[in-house]
Fold:
Amino acid sequence: MRHPLQVADVMTRDVITVGEDTPYKEIVALLAAHHISAVPVLNRYGGIAGVVSETDLIRKAEFQRKQERRVLRKRRRAARSKAAAVRAAEAMSHPAVTIDQRATIPEAAQLMTARGITRLVVTHDDVLVGIVTRSDLLKAFLEPDDRLVQRIRREVVVHALWDDPYSIDISVENGVVTLSGDVEQRSTAEVAARLTSRVDGVVGVVNQLNWVYDDTSVSPEPQPSPEYRRRP
Structure:
């Protein structure tokens, strides 16, 4: 069975980095030249010291004009510190939020959401290997519908259910999968829908599978699905 997409499959590998002593103005120039919004900051040993982003750098513009002391007291100390930054180590956010390259796309998405950030530093054995952004995580949903049909047939029907590849009818429109046809047990229909929803690139699942026996019922005599009973 094909493994789920990992962070390594969608991340950017050619990562622009800066050192802790990189001047503020040089960081701004790098972001503009490469059309990126953040760069990892490396310490003198090549380790990940933090990340400096446009959000960090914009603090200087925010505090550019002198404000009343009583207003400044309401600002967070960290924000005032970043506003005075002249090098990367003073402007960066640290520690950097990292994720292993073998993590799955859902794991990366959950971490981004939980931390309220738009990018993650990707590591392997604690060494920087890439950067993954929210837009990278959406790449899985660019999979063509016909390719999704093939993958669901192979990964779900054949390898997971151990069934004939064409025992279940599969159609996909704009990433939404419809499963139809007949299976022996209700549990099989439910498992098929659940596994299909986990295939990378699937937007949603419409389960129209009929079953002969409801093996999930507590009744001693499992009954066929209503749709199946109505068939001539």
Observations:
- The mean pLDDT is 87.
- The chain has two domains: 7-140, 143-229.
- Residues 7-140 form a domain with the CBS-domain fold (CATH 3.10.580.10).
